Amino acid sequence: MISTHSSVSTFSHLGDRPQFDAENKPAQAVTYWLTRDIVRGVFPPGKRLKVAELSDFYKVGYSPVRDAIHAQAFYELVSHEHFRGYAVAPVSLTDYDEVLQAFQQIYKLAAKMALEQGGNDWEESLIVELHRSKKVVKVMPDADPELREYWQRAYWSFHYKILEGCGSKTLLNFFTQLANRLERYVSLYADMESDRTRENHAEHESLIKAIVDRDENEFMFQIDSYFSRSNTIRESIKQSLKQL
């Protein structure tokens, strides 16, 4: 069974952040769709991923589907068992704790490097990204799924832009992998009520101000504050996982 959650492949548009061109770049499109659909819970943990089924689901050929599955296996959103094929990766409290710890450490390491190495072009790009992100209305999970996805994309794009100043493709790849795995836990198990009144745009402004001021102590303080404001959500995820 495939979840009744809507697939990102059905979304008509995402504002100024368009989808991949499925006709001309099917492998990229399906890889993106499958990533987001696993993260969002369209395909739940343990769901067997059959090429024929996904080909029909996404209306593409077998080859781009195989490429997409292999990509998710590399990024640990998909697991493989001999004689049983591929399935959406399982979840556990131990895995969540490990992903969360690694995510925070990678984020802080890349952020510190970005502040030290990022030049004026990077700093100016952050101002533009902040401006763009502030135009996107925050949407909660219980609202329109396409608008929620647009918000999620703008949110992660902002943080990726900050870390991009580190200049390390390796760290950025780790960040992307961990961010997807972490977001999956949020999508599946978090009680998001405490996030309803959170002022994300104001938090983003504080991060950018510290960067523009080149104030490392303030920047790291703002990052720690950003992490701590999600403690209630994290605790709800842990409680949910303990009941599995």
Automatic annotation (TrEMBL):
Residues 28-71 form the HTH gntR-type domain. This is FCD domain-containing protein. It comes from Pseudoalteromonas lipolytica. Keywords: DNA-binding, Transcription, Transcription regulation. SUPFAM superfamilies: GntR ligand-binding domain-like, Winged helix' DNA-binding domain. Residues 99-217 form the GntR C-terminal domain. It holds the Pfam family GntR. InterPro entries: GntR_C (IPR011711), TF_FadR/GntR_C (IPR008920), Tscrpt_reg_HTH_GntR (IPR000524), WH-like_DNA-bd_sf (IPR036388), WH_DNA-bd_sf (IPR036390).
